[in-house]
Amino acid sequence: MSVFVHDGDLPDNLDFGSMVAVDSETMGLNPHRDRLCVVQLSSGDGNAHLVKFDGISYDAPNLKKLMADPNVIKLFHFARFDVAVLSHYLGVEVTPIYCTKIASKLVRTYTDRHGLKDLCRELAGIELDKQQQSSDWGAPTLSEAQQTYAASDVLYLHQLKTKLDIMLEREGRTLEAQAAFNFLPIRAKLDLMGFENMDIFSH
Questions:
Q1: pLDDT tens digit string along 90-102?
Q2: β-pairing, 47-52 with 2-7?
Q3: How many domains does one find in the chain?
C-alpha cells in the first residue's frame, strides 16, 4: 500500500478509471459547523490519495471535476454524510453514487452490524484499525497513523462492492439499491436544509 498526500487538490495527471472509492474526514459530524479536512480516494489498486484542506480554501478544480464526472462511479460507505459534506464545502453535486452501507442493509438482513469494519471482516477477511477515527483531522500535518487509517477507509470498497453486488442480484434487490443510490444527492441536500431527523414520508 502507498499513501499520497496532496495539499488542496488532486494532481492533474491522476486517472481513477470508471470507479473511485471516496471518503472524507471532518472535525465533527455537523457539516455547517465542522469543516472538511481530508478527502481520500482510491481506484482499488492498493494506493490511496489524500487531499488535505487548510480550512481556508476549497478551490479544488480537479477533485470537483472528478466528483461530478457522470462517467465515474463514486463508491462510498455511508455516502449520505460524505455527499452532504462534499456538496457543502466543494459546491458540487456528487454523482453517480454507490453506497456499500445501503447495499449491506438491503442484503445482510441477518445482522444489524453494517459498519465498514464489520463489512471488511466478513466480506474481505480484513480487520480494520479504527483507533484514529476520532483524532484531530484539522492538524497542520497528518500523522502516519492518520494516513494509514484514512487510506484503509477507501482501499477495500471495490472488493466490498463486488461481494455486495452478487448478494443484491441473488436477493433480487439490485434495482431497489440503485434507486436508493440515485436518491442520495437529494437526501444529502435535505440533511443540509435541516431535515436530517425528520421522516418527510411519514403521515
A1: 999 999 999 999 9
A2: parallel
A3: 1
